[in-house]
Amino acid sequence: MRHRGVSRRGVLKGGAACAALAASRLLLLAGAGAPAAGTAAETTTRSRPRTRVAVVGAGAFGGFTALSLVRRGAQVTLVDTWGPGNSRASSGGETRVIRATYGPDRIYVEMVAQALRLWRENETRFGQRLYRKTGVLWMTGRDDSFERASLPLLRDAGLAFEEMTTSQAAIRYPQVSFEGVTRAILEKEGGYLLARRSCQIVTEGMQKEGGEYRQVSATPGAVEKGGMGPLILSDGSRLAADHYVFACGPWLGRMFPEAIGDRVRPTRQEVFFFGTPAGDPRFQEDRLPVWVDHGERIIYGIPGNDGRGFKVADDTRGPAFDPDTGDRIPSADGLASARAFLARRFPVLAGAPLLEARVCQYENSPDSRFIFDRLPGAGNAWIVGGGSGHGFKHGPAVGERIADLVLGKRTPDPFFGLSRFQS
Known about the structure:
By secondary structure, the chain is of the alpha+beta class.
């Protein structure tokens, strides 16, 4: 699905900065009448060790989980084999859609509403733009039950939308052919996210706020007496923690063959970026929103993309794919299908030049729902995955949810639990 690594020098600088900040805070506290060193108050504070958490995987789920844990006072080490937002990861690539239309699934609508708030808050906190509000235009076929079921849930969540007839939509968006479309709905708060950049910025932010990042691969520790032991790292060291979170995307099934196995199945997904006519502003993101064509299959796209081109992708699950060794050269059939779609829905782009193409993967659960649960037999280890092609947008909300689970402030939700797969 969807590299800039974080250097050792950056980690050291971040650690030095944190140490200096901590020292300055102690001086300020002392000046304000805080207890002097060696007092009973200080001894009590020091006697409470921080909860140690190791998070494996620096994608949207793992990165935001690590960040949320740091902000809750945990001592966090985040590890990733190839780095945050790397091209093998389900969170790799440049852009992801953020939308809240989810049919009757209220839980996802509410999570998107929470995530939108957190994306904006983190943009302010990091001083980086991660979210582009373009709106999301849904174009439905004869069966619009999925979209209709979403509308009252969007309204309840305070997410604005606008319904249009196809005639009204054609006037507003003349660059689109609405042939075969029965309904148009514009999600006003939707848009797209800068995927790779977000993963990198979240990891850097987590370090600046006191967490640690290590670019190594990790093997789960031995499970004994109801708990997991230290992780075995590729540099020969071990990483001990009070809790372990595994947000390993398409590698979860391989890492936990008994608990997960083929309950997380990677599939090969192709994405294409086409060139728009010179001097034609109609395909810029201020003139055309992110769009979803929901007919016999779901095809979606993103205009603009920071000059990368007009993105087109088919949401249909592709063939099984190995994220380590799979061929990432797009197929001729996939390109031909994307071109045929463009010619039908965006006639001006018929014959548009291909600028970029990539192969990523979805990490699908059997029912496309996320998996958030304890690892069976290990009360201190958590499984976080099953993004199923729609997980990235939820990253900040997932991070807060998992942090609360790890720290005992929330109980597992059966909707996301492993028990749903038991016959």
